[in-house]
């Protein structure tokens, strides 16, 4: 759809040049590994929380080989309270795979990236685009929301990504790979800063005059109820408390140390079982518990 590209591309790219945040993983000096680490950390996690964790991680493990040389439990420990700690194990598994299969260098080939453990279609497309300046549709939550409003005229996209969204995203990609890579991050930034979920700053939008949602009168979302994620009292909070004990321990801890941080025994045991099943906690033969090794 070249006409759609000509309608939106220049305005959004110019806006990005003027307003993009100065983030370390966007620096010309950022390695492909650094880009991958940022993408894994940014999943379901805001930039403000990611920045200190990213900087500490990259200082400790600037290359995949650096991380691969350490036990997986150290990745979990370093992850701290960033949330969704399975991502730490994924990064460790990726580091080992890159070290063993690719001589420690993150591959630029999209299919090889996709074949790394824990790397899904979004992450492979994002790293291919942002690290290697290739032409790929990068569809995260922010991008999907921008396209839903700008092109489809609805406030929010469907809960699950659709094939139609994929086709639309591909149709909007500029033909030149470098421009396409810039477009991918520019639309993402527009969704993060301007076309936000709850309070979009429409007056500051570079394509406000072309937005189908605005031209339709900003009809309210009429799909399934969108529930915010709760945290207090959930299994997720319980798992976080249990992992926190092990992160601060110098070695294996007795079961009583885990029992002490959560009062509800049935939920605590369920959370502990889940952490063991996910490989985040290692139960020892002597009845103690530790981070994986």
Description:
The protein is mainly α and 293 residues long. The chain has three domains: 31-130, Endonuclease III, domain 1; 141-175 and 182-215, Endonuclease Iii, domain 2, CATH 1.10.1670.10; 235-290. The chain is built from 15 helices and two strands. A two-stranded antiparallel ribbon has the order 1-2. A hairpin with a 5-residue loop joins strand 1 and strand 2 (289-290). Helix 1 crosses helix 11 (177-193), helix 2 crosses helix 8 and helix 13 (235-248) crosses helix 15. It is globular, with a radius of gyration of 21 Å. The mean pLDDT is 94.
Radius of gyration over C-alpha positions, nearest whole angstrom:
21 Å
Largest sheet: 2 strands, antiparallel
* CATH homologous superfamily placement of the largest domain: Hypothetical protein, domain 2
Please report the distance between the alpha carbons of the first and last residues. 51 Å
Q: Determine the strand fraction and express it as a percent band.
A: under 5%
Order of helices and strands: HHHHHHHHHHHHHHHEE
Structural class by helix and strand composition: mainly alpha
CATH 2nd-level architecture of the largest domain: Orthogonal Bundle
How many β-strands, per DSSP? 2
What average pLDDT do the residues reach? 94
Give the CA-based shape: globular
The CATH class of the largest domain turns out to be Mainly Alpha
How would you concisely characterize the structure shown here?
This protein is 55% helix and 1% strand. By secondary structure, the chain is mainly alpha-helical.
């Amino acid at each position: 759809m070249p006409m759609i590209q000509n309608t939106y591309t220049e305005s959004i790219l110019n806006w990005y040049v003027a307003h993009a945040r100065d983030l370390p993983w966007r620096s010309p000096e950022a390695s492909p590994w650094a880009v991958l680490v940022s993408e894994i950390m940014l999943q379901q996690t805001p930039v403000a929380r990611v920045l200190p964790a990213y900087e500490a991680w990259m200082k400790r493990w600037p290359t995949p080989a650096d991380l691969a040389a350490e036990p997986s439990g150290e990745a979990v420990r370093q992850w701290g309270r960033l949330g969704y700690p399975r991502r730490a194990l994924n990064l460790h598994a990726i580091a080992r795979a890159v070290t063993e299969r690719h001589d420690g260098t993150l591959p630029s080939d999209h299919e090889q990236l996709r074949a790394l453990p824990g790397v899904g279609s979004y992450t492979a497309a994002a790293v291919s685009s942002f690290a290697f300046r290739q032409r790929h549709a990068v569809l995260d939550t922010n991008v999907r929301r921008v396209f839903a409003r700008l092109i489809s005229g609805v406030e929010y996209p469907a809960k699950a990504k659709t094939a139609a969204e994929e086709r639309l995203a591909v149709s909007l990609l500029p033909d030149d790979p470098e421009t396409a890579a810039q477009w991918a991050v520019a639309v993402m930034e527009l969704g993060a800063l301007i076309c936000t979920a709850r309070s979009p700053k429409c007056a500051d939008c570079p394509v406000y005059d072309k937005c189908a949602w605005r031209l339709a009168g900003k009809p309210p979302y009429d799909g399934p109820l969108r529930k915010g994620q709760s945290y207090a009292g959930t299994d997720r909070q319980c798992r976080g408390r249990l992992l926190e004990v092990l992160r601060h321990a110098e070695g294996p801890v007795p079961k009583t140390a885990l029992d002490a941080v959560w009062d509800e025994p049935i939920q605590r045991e369920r959370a502990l079982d889940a952490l063991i099943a996910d490989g985040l906690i290692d139960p020892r033969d002597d009845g103690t518990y530790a981070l994986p090794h």
